[in-house]
Amino acid sequence: APQGRDKASIQAMRQQHFSKTLSLSYREPLKIVRGQGAYLFDEQGRDYLDMVNNVCHVGHCHPHVVAAGQRQMASLNTNTRYLHDNLVDYGQRLLATFPDPLSVCFFVNSGSEANELAFRMARCATGRRDLLVVDGAYHGNTNACIEASSYKFDGPGGEGAASHIHKVPLPYPYRGLYQGANTASAYAQDLRGVVEGLEWRNTLPGAFICESLQGVAGQIVMPEGYLQQVYNTVRKTGGVCIADEVQVGFGRVGQSMWGFQTQQVVPDIVTLGKPIGNGHPMAAVVTTPAIADAFVTGMEYFNTFGGNPVSCAIGMAVLEVLEQEQLVSGAQKTGDYLKQHLAALAREYACIGDIRGMGLFLGVELVSDPSTKSPATAQTAWLIEFFKSHRILLSSEGPDANVLKIKPPMVFGQREADRFLDIFKQGLATMPALAN
Ligand code: PMP
Description:
Layout: H1 7-17, E1 32-36, E2 39-42, E3 47-50, H2 63-73, H3 85-95, E4 104-108, H4 111-126, E5 131-134, H5 143-147, H6 150-153, E6 165-168, H7 184-200, E7 207-211, H8 226-236, E8 240-244, E9 269-272, E10 283-287, H9 289-294, H10 309-324, H11 327-348, E11 352-358, E12 361-369, E13 374-375, H12 377-389, E14 392-393, E15 395-397, E16 403-406, H13 414-430
Parallel strand pairs: 3-14, 5-6, 5-7, 7-8, 8-9
Antiparallel strand pairs: 1-2, 2-3, 4-10, 9-10, 11-12, 12-13, 12-16, 15-16
Helix pairs in contact: 2-10, 3-10, 7-8, 11-13
Bound molecules: 4'-deoxy-4'-aminopyridoxal-5'-phosphate.
4'-deoxy-4'-aminopyridoxal-5'-phosphate binds near residues 141 and 215.
Cofactor: pyridoxal 5'-phosphate
Keywords: Aminotransferase, Pyridoxal phosphate, Transferase
Organism: Lacimicrobium alkaliphilum
């Protein structure tokens, strides 16, 4: 039965009392009232396969996570100024998933806050403010994060790069400055060029921040060896390397718990968010003892909500479900299955220009002409509405909005993959001719 306000009145109230900068998905927005596993349900009880939500990582409203939160909420919630088991139990369990020397964590409340803290720590550790950032990347909504996000400062409403921000090309094997698999050295050489330019001006980078796989820039897997070469360059100058795992962490890439492991590097600072609390607002920064010590300047670091017993109970439950349900190896299996069937579709439909990604972090780049790679922006938008009409939720990504972004809850399995592939095939077969 329908429940609550009707959609039109919610939209009218949003327009009256909320900022126009809050966007909605779809021409006809959905009202979603319930979630379970990989599915969302609207006010009419219709189910939608959720292929967008990488936050509700172990599945919407997972009963083990819900129960852990409810139990702790009914017994105690405070800040970290009293001794409590949850903080240390969860910290220990989380840190056990990291390689040495990453053994100190800070709990915060959002991915933006995690990156914000990472920048401050890098500044304390190096005494430098200059930051190397990747073109097209997004790292959060705070002042420092917007400054580090070319997606924002180069985009609508942006003010361009601040003087301490230095952009390096996006390592994008399909469409970037250098194309093909063996382009790590070329991209790393460009970063060296940027660093040399700084040296000429007697500045050195304090840090380099990079997602371990690129999200907002277009679901991109960087060429093999890129981070190794770049980390070497940055560390030679005394800078630190920050890996933003807010989107890709917690086993989404299938082959490992952390995206940086797919590039065979160990960062100095790692930031975590989105999936860490399965939708409960929490995030973390993980670093080395040396950097954590450099942050002890005499100024206390206090965070009202970060590391509270409820958040820690929820974070712990997420890690337990990941392990119990073997969701990381599941993501690998389902991701490989999807890629294999998508590759078969690509042989039939020339508009599928590129299929990329790892585990359940995949991108399908659509082009209107494979030889020029001209982005099929209108076709992608049409497909997203087509998927919606078949009750599959997907979003587009990349500067030309021509990449189908696949990042469902990790409980998305072969049955769900088959449903998606079937509808994708129907969509490709019935797509009208559209001008871009
Ligand atoms: N880093 C990356 C890579 C992100 O994708 C996001 C959110 N889209 C953030 C940081 C910011 O996280 P939050 O929205 O939780 O502040």
